[in-house]
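@here heads up, posting the sequence + SMILES for the zinc ion run so it's all in one place. Ping me if the SMILES looks off, I pulled it from an old spreadsheet.
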Amino acid sequence: MTRHVVWDHGVSLPGHRLFLDPLVVRNFAFISHAHTDHARRHREALLTPQTLALIPEGRRPRGWRMLGYGEAMRRDSATVTLLPAGHMLGSAQLLLEHDGIRLLYTGDLKLRVPGTRVLTEIPRADVLIVESTYGRPHFRFGDPDETVEAIARWCRFALASRVTPVLLCHALGKTEEVMLALAQYGFTFALEKRCVPCARAYAAAGRSLPDWIELEAASGDAHGRVVIAPPAGKDEVRRLSRYRTALVSGWAKDTEFARMFGADATFDLSDHCDFDELLEVVAKSGADQVYTVHGYTADFARHLRRKGIRASALEATEQLQLAL
Ligand SMILES: [Zn+2]
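bot reply: prediction finished. Complex structure tokens:
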């Protein structure tokens, strides 16, 4: 039963009456993390306490079963355990064990988290359902610590030239992780208004953040702070008198995409695995059956098959999810 995996508006394990990050409301579903493409008002959701805390009131499931990392839960005759996924605060992988078969669902996953030398742990599994957001070979990111260093140099140079550095980051998760990584260089921050509720939620969920204020763009001045704003719609930022923008995203590796945002600079710091990390995840799991979900599902599955691994794209049609 554990081997029976299908796509039904999200990953479905019919043998266990369990949906993994479904796109429609379900009776019982696992929510791997708090990004809005995953949060739905399920009747009951399985999630970590941090993920629940980060989902805004209006998108919360109606009921929930919270599980901390490493805690086991029985689901009929199967055992379910959640493990850190390194993608953002509270993000989790799900390991389901049944009849001696182990199935691992990664959710959105990051192996090399900046500022830590510890890799996200990938347990052994027979069946692996892996995200493939960056499942094409041109998505190879630099060392995250060196990239943070380069971002810090870029910000310092801008500030020294009396120009406001503006980092374009996804509001929830990326903004806070970039703030935490840059705080060690002594920067303080001004957040564009759309980043503000997310920063408050992150702090409330247990990750305290370095010194920040809300950007008062009307004054045309960010008071020597690094501004962080979401990539789309830079209206507030445009009111600053002198500024430079940098896109901080794995999509920086995609020239067309990077150009779309019209940023002055790009940094390939991502909260997802790059192509090589995805291959590493597959190898570490030792799985003999791999399913790919999200992003370049067909490309990545094809690449795995060429390496002799049994792999298929789970989604019927390939859809590119923009994960910044
Ligand atoms: Zn995500």
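MO: The pocket of zinc ion is lined by residues 33, 35, 87, 108, 323 (CB under 6 Å).
MO: One more: Residues 2 and 98 are 6 Å apart (CA to CA).
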